[in-house]
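Contributing: when you submit paired examples, paste them exactly as shown. First protein:
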Amino acid sequence: MFPTEKKQSFKTRCFALILNLFPTYRRTGGRAVFISEDLKDIHIRLKLGWGTRNYVGTIFGGSMAAAADPIYMIQLMRLLGDDYIVWDKSASIRFRRPGTKTLYIRFHITDQLLNDIQERVVKEQEFDLELATDWVDKDGIVYATVSKQLYIADKAFYKEKQAARKAAKQAKS
């Protein structure tokens, strides 16, 4: 759906299959149709069907939100590696028109964004990052915009912070 020079690998095809079969994700109606071998480009498809249709016959907004929900977090966790903590903090969706046909969404992480995240973690140790992307049809018409707020931290810093909270809580008891 989205033009890209990136290629899929056997490993990322397997990852897409596992994601698509995972019960929680499968029930959203979303399907990973492309995951680049470097995991920086992920394309999701959401068809209008009996499982995604709402009361008025358009794509249920909850399906749009749920199908988009875990992707940025999973992507950044895998791209940044084990020295980082990545958590979803909040999400919002702005509907622009009713989803009356198959929709697509692209999660694209650039090298520049990864570098910026790594530099901010060095400086700040933890911060919130807002990322947004659009549900579009095959003609590129926007149906909804999904915004995700992610918490990103240095893993060692995060563990120290959690230990300090636990100690403070025990001291109060």
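Second protein:
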Amino acid sequence: MTFYPTDKLALFVDGANFYSAAKALNLDIDYKKLLDEFKKRGILIRAYYYTAIVEDQEYSPIRPLVDWLDYNGFTVVTKPAKDYVDASGRRRWRGDMDIEIACEMLAMAEHADHLVLFSGDGDFRALVEAVQRKGARVTVVSTVKSQPPMASDDLRRQADAFVDLADLADIVGRPRRDPLPRYVTGDADHDVEEDA
């Protein structure tokens, strides 16, 4: 991954997708370390974190993370998750932030030299190509070292560079200690998923 000290950097974290990649590697992300690492690699001008939030719950397990990020260097972009009933009759929530990520990446391509996308979602291939046409370089951070791989091959090929999250684990991660609440892991009635 080539970064130049004079690069203006912008980070884009697809919260749900990046969480799934970290979970597949049994890793918790330390977002302070993540910011610190990319501040060493260039001039960090903006760091975005995108997630959908279930608003009708008394307590949302993701809320403390969102609040911490908001006060510690990230621009947090949220929207309400929409509920639906799956084929098993269980209530689920869905929240896709692809359009919000795409709009902001295209806008930031005019101001940054290097954009870092923390997502393996293949739907972003065309976005990466459009950002590159504007003159910005794009690095994708996800993982192919999990079963199944979490990064789309098309997205990896389109990006200027691909960094496997497993290779950053010692720098920006810490091993998972306790299982996360059911809402966050997607193991029960209160998971949030992206649109397919």
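If you have annotations for the second protein, write them as plain sentences, like these:
Helices lie at 15-24, 31-40, 63-71, 98-108, 125-133, 153-158, 165-172, 182-185.
The CA atoms of residues 184 and 191 lie 6 Å apart.
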